[in-house]
Amino acid sequence: MAYDPDNIFAKILRREIPNKTVYEDEFALAFHDIHPQAPVHVLVIPKGAYVSMDDFSRTASPAELQGFFAAVGAVARQLGIDRTGYRMLANHGADSHQEVPHFHVHLVGGGPLGSLLTKRG
Length: 121
Ligand code: 5GP
Hints:
Elements: H1 8-13, E1 21-24, E2 28-32, E3 40-46, H2 53-59, H3 62-79, H4 81-84, E4 86-89, E5 105-109
Antiparallel strand pairs: 1-2, 2-3, 3-5, 4-5
Bound molecules: guanosine-5'-monophosphate.
């Protein structure tokens, strides 16, 4: 799947639409999900143009891979959910219902979370 430069997170990276930023560095931008599904629900995205985890893990440079996942951990610590617990989740492709075709990690926490998987149609 080719990267669509008009996806909503590409527009957020270009500052064409607003976001509630919680963290930014050379490799990653983190912002609050517009429809939070937990008391804390933050999305962490790489600065580079990657469709999903599959694309990112195959084609990102070692520096991007290291920088991005280090940023995910830093965001969790900044939010304080490293102390109480959190879930990190990334959807790839149709079966996962990935909505936005720019790789992103969901960080959810801030209270007890439900079971990992909920079957839906
Ligand atoms: P996915 O299903 O692709 O893993 O998750 C996409 C996430 O992006 C959803 O949780 C959705 O609420 C969030 N989202 C979609 N559009 C926007 C937006 O314009 N701004 C923000 N902050 N989040 C968005």
